[in-house]
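In response to reviewer comment 3 from the previous cycle, which asked for concrete evidence that the modeling workflow produces usable outputs, we include below a single protein chain processed end to end. The sequence was submitted unchanged, and the resulting structure tokens are shown without manual editing.
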Amino acid sequence: MKKILFVILLIEGVILGSNLSKVKINHHEVPLIYEADHNLPIVTMQLVFQNSGMLFDGNRSGLARLSAKLLNEGTKKLGAVGFATILDDNAIHLSANTGRETFVIELSALKEKFSEGIKLLRSLLQDPNYTPDTLKKLKLLTLAQIDRKMSDFDYIANRNLYKILYANTPLAYPSIGTKESIEQISLDDIQAFHNKHLIVDEAIVVIGGDLDKKEAQLYSKEVLEVLKSAKPFQLCHCNPTDTPQTKEVKKETKQAYVYFGAPYYVDVNSSDRYISRVAMFILGSGGFGSRMMEEIRVKNGLAYSAYSRAAITKSHSNFFGYLQTKISSQEKAIKLVKEVIAKFVKEGVTQDELDQAKRFLLGSEPLRNETLSQRLNRAFHEYYEGFELGHSKEMLKRIEKLDLKTLNHFIKSHPEINRLSFSIVTKK
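The workflow returned the following structure tokens.
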């Protein structure tokens, strides 16, 4: 059955696989990730800018996010309503968003309308809606969102965890910003952010759908040629604290919201990433059957859900998890989390747990590659993290061959996940 699965995946790789090339713009060579899919007459493009997310907000927390929001307000010439009307009339989707490390502009449309979408994207990049009224509206909306988040106890607990783990680093600040930082952001700040970060030097194009490779190259050039060139930024790597800390916030709540995290010394380009995936699945990311869920919910009834996983990116790497429990069970739940993780590191896992993890991870893999967007997203992350396209399939083969001794050696070599910090929202 496993051999059949890999044959299917290899066939899919030939028929549906993404490929990498370069687009030459003056003296720049911009990476182009492309995949054809003629099942539907749709074309989709992502223009990704590296080193341009919230990690580059500087002393203006929320700047990257607000800069993306402004690009969703159309051009200065047409205004937000006029620009949106053209998009709607042509069934074109065009939007900008930002993460911790990247800034992404997405464009999708029917094949016959995609060239019109490219024109609109070009005009957006050349003439953003830099007006005081636009900024005022965006600030009011953002401040209202910040207010709402103050009653979201999951958000509060999660944000405080990152303040503990990454104190004095950009990760300690919320991507949405604070009331104080949002009020300080000016149009000049946003324009400077766009000029510094939305540059051809940092661009990656991800495009696919009902078009051939030559068309993909031409569309990409049309967009890239309007971008400026500037000196690229360097992505910082933030290290989490290895000193356990606990922060409690008192609210009017009937549940305790418990978030926990610790260092996890696995780099984004580590050859052991596939082992980590199996280990974390068994510990807490595998749902029912995982150690966390089994011990905390099934055996002790302390939470409806208990979850943990590893966050491994270019900018940071840590272990984290969360659960909700009754106020009266809070201390018992925290104690049990510590015990489950300590036992996991000390004793490792069983052959049965490894076999079950393999069956799920290998058996569910086709579901992660059903759509074009899933395949393009995977290809982008393979390239972005420094691997060759198709790396994920190679990791599946390694998971299939993974033995218990190797897995347990890996688990026991990461005792740092025992150095747990806790962020808790509980009753007054």
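The mean pLDDT is 94. We consider this sufficient to address the reviewer's concern, and the full set will be provided in the supplementary archive.
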